[in-house]
Write a structure and sequence with these properties.
By secondary structure, the protein is of the alpha/beta class. The chain is 43% helix and 14% strand. Strands 1, 2, 3, 4, 5, 6, 7 and 8 form an 8-stranded mixed sheet that branches.
């Protein structure tokens, strides 16, 4: 039986508009949000400012969805879980950790705020459930989901009631099938198995999920590494697989695949052979630079 899904999302400004390769402004994120937040489902949003709260409420009101919208303003993000934040922060300043990652300029390698905020996804959903704002099946959807039409056509009709017959577990969406590859290898190679953009779960499991995420991140930190939410989700899954259910999907496709099949996918030209070759050569170059970093590091070490 299809069940209506309450949706939780959040936007916390971590100065991404000042990043180089991964630059996105706050206004961009708000436009991305406006693209999918036409959903008729109950929507609970966490933000940092009254101004953003007002903008979101006005937008939902313009759609006749004000009574189906709750916006919470939170204070100092770091105070939500200081233990977790400090654990991540300690690793972010370690040059050995940075050198051990294949793509050392990615934010999950150097930005503690980014990794911390990624884990607050589960904190937000748990909080929404504890407040009584969300019950039954509850989904996390990234504030910037679909990047304004990156995969699903921005002109598609997102003004529908999202319902689906998900099992009463934490439902995760895979970009590749799971295996038993060691976590340190996945983290260092910066591979992805589970997408963190959309997660759906029954209300009473989100608190346990949050606890698994926190302990998994701290465990990874204890090993001298940190990462964003996606590989921490994988660690949580491995700790207690019985509370999870996995589904094969693709980037940004969950609302179409498990919601409204009428949503249109952007028609893109196939990647040319030259483009594929360029990507492959660039990846090989990155691997060569990574191998050189590791060689230089170990060649200077004395093993006792």
């Amino acid at each position: 039986m299809e069940k209506e899904i309450a949706v939780v999302t959040a936007f916390f400004n971590i100065n991404r508009d000042n990043w180089d390769k991964f630059k996105r402004s706050s206004n961009q994120y708000l436009e991305y949000f406006y693209g999918w937040a036409k959903l008729k489902n109950k929507l609970i949003v966490y933000v940092e400012t009254e101004d953003l709260r007002t903008q979101i409420l006005n937008f939902r009101d313009s759609l006749g969805l004000l009574t189906r919208t709750v916006v919470h303003v939170v204070g100092d993000l770091r105070s939500l879980d200081p233990e977790l934040y400090e654990s991540i922060k300690k690793i972010s300043t370690n040059p050995i950790h940075k050198a051990a990652r294949l793509f050392s300029k990615n934010p999950e390698v150097w930005n503690a705020d980014y990794n911390y905020v990624m884990l607050l996804k589960m904190w937000c959903v748990r909080d929404a459930v504890e407040r009584g704002d969300a019950e039954g099946m509850v989904a996390w959807v990234d504030f910037g989901y679909n990047h304004g039409g990156d995969v699903l056509d921005k002109n598609s009709d997102f003004n529908f009631l999202w319902k689906y017959d998900f099992p009463e577990k934490i439902c995760l969406f895979l970009i590749q099938e799971l295996d038993d590859r060691p976590i340190f290898d996945i983290v260092c190679s910066m591979d992805t198995y589970i997408m963190g953009t959309v997660i759906v779960g029954v209300d009473y499991l989100w608190n346990e999920f949050w606890k698994l995420m926190k302990t998994s991140m701290i465990s990874l930190n204890d090993c001298g590494l940190m990462d964003d939410d996606q590989n921490i989700i994988l660690m949580s899954y491995r700790k207690k697989p019985e509370i999870f259910q996995t589904f094969k999907s693709d980037w940004q496709m969950q609302l179409k695949q498990f919601g409204n099949e009428k949503l249109q996918v952007v028609d893109r030209k196939p990647i040319s052979k030259i483009r594929r070759l360029y990507r492959r050569l660039r990846y090989k170059k990155d691997c060569a630079l990574y191998a050189m970093r590791i060689y230089k590091y170990y060649s200077k070490k004395t093993v006792h």
